[in-house]
């Protein structure tokens, strides 16, 4: 097959997953406090964390296998991309691991650094 054939279509590239976290990507705990916004087809997106799916009511529900997902369940757990990202950003600060929220972890590891940087900048 000739890969330089001008009749070939342009290869498709599509983002199918976003990471949303209060902690920056370089933080050692970033992966623990991350929500994922994942494409589920038909321009519908889900907010996911460890197999749990965020509903429009703000509650987490275990993501069922496709054959068990009824239309009503899908209507509560699938969103357009903007809504899914907004929900993930709203819930990211409250992600809890071992009794600590993302806010608490950020405050312990990044707030002091941010305050020190701000103080240093103000002193200059």
Question: What topology does this entry show?
Answer:
Layout: E1 17-20, E2 35-39, E3 45-49, E4 52-54, E5 60-62, H1 71-77, H2 81-91, E6 96-97, E7 100-101, H3 102-123
Supply the key terms.
3 helices; five-stranded antiparallel sheet; two-stranded antiparallel ribbon; 32% helix; 124 residues; flat
Q: What's the gyration radius in Å?
A: 20 Å
The mean pLDDT is: 91
Q: Which stretches are poorly predicted, pLDDT < 50 over at least 5 residues?
A: none
Q: What string gives the helices and strands in order?
A: EEEEEHHEEH
Q: Strand count, sense and closure of the main sheet?
A: 5 strands, antiparallel
What does this structure look like?
With 124 residues, the chain is α+β, with helices and mostly antiparallel strands. The chain has one domain (17-123). The protein is built from three helices and seven strands, in the order E-E-E-E-E-H-H-E-E-H. It has helices spanning 71-77, 81-91, 102-123; strands at residues 17-20, 35-39, 45-49, 52-54, 60-62, 96-97, 100-101. The strands form two sheets. Strands 1-2-3-4-5 form a five-stranded antiparallel sheet, with helices on one face. Strands 6-7 form a two-stranded antiparallel sheet. A hairpin with a 5-residue loop joins strand 4 (52-54) and strand 5 (60-62). It is flat and about 60 Å long. The termini are far apart. The mean pLDDT is 91.
């Amino acid at each position: 097959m000739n890969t330089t054939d001008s009749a070939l279509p342009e290869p498709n590239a599509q983002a199918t997953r976003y990471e949303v976290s209060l902690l920056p990507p370089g933080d050692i705990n970033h992966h623990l406090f991350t929500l994922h916004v994942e494409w589920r087809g038909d321009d519908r997106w889900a907010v996911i964390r460890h197999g749990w799916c965020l509903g429009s009511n703000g509650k987490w529900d275990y993501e069922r296998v496709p054959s068990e997902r009824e239309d009503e369940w899908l209507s509560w757990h699938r969103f357009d991309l903007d809504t899914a990202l907004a929900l993930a950003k709203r819930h990211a600060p409250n992600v809890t691991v071992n009794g600590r929220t993302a806010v608490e972890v950020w405050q312990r590891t990044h707030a002091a650094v941010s305050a020190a940087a701000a103080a240093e900048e103000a002193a200059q």
